Amino acid sequence: MKLFIHKHLLILFAILLTFLYFENNIFTSSKTNMEKEIEILLFNTNVIKRRVAAKRLGYYSHRRSVIALLEALHDDDILVRKNSIRSLGKIRDVKAIPFLIELLDDDESDIRNQVVRSLGMIKSVKALNSLIDSLDDEEKTVRMSAIWALLQIRDKRAVKSLIDKLFDKDSKVRSYAAEALGKFNDKKIIPFLKHVYLNDLDIKVKQSAALSLKRLGEEVDFPTERKK
Fold it and tell me: Considering only CA atoms, which of 112, 98, 30 is closest in space to residue 64?
């Protein structure tokens, strides 16, 4: 009996050692890969490789990865910067928020747009006011991304500013705002959505308003385009 127990203990010990060996190897390999990507991102002269490294680092939720990506926000190449911003959003480290907010004044609308989307991915109220400000960006893509980002955070302090977007000069922005507002579950929004439903000249905006009104419990007909 003692020999039997001893034999099984040895087997269990061997299994444990094997598990620890592979776990350690996987961890070490992962860390090494991260360090390689950091080195490429910060020091490689090949811009294509830096762009790829900026993307890959988004899979490493590690302090060193975040620091490297923050440094890469000043890269000369716009796609390296854009990929770094996207990766910071994927990692969702709130410490990146102040550095991302600084880029909302960037001259490139693609950069501003990615910053807004990454702030939405992080989902922190710390970015709320900056995202509200982005609702007035000169580029409609940024304004639409700001609506999306505020919807991810879903703080009711953004509702008033989103209501203002029901009257945006661009119909796509108005439509998206109407759709988003219905997801805030706030009855105070209903009169504004009804106004849009009855008065907006764009059929898609009317349809978005109708869907949100239905979501909020209102009985309205779904508007359709009249056949010519």
Answer: 30
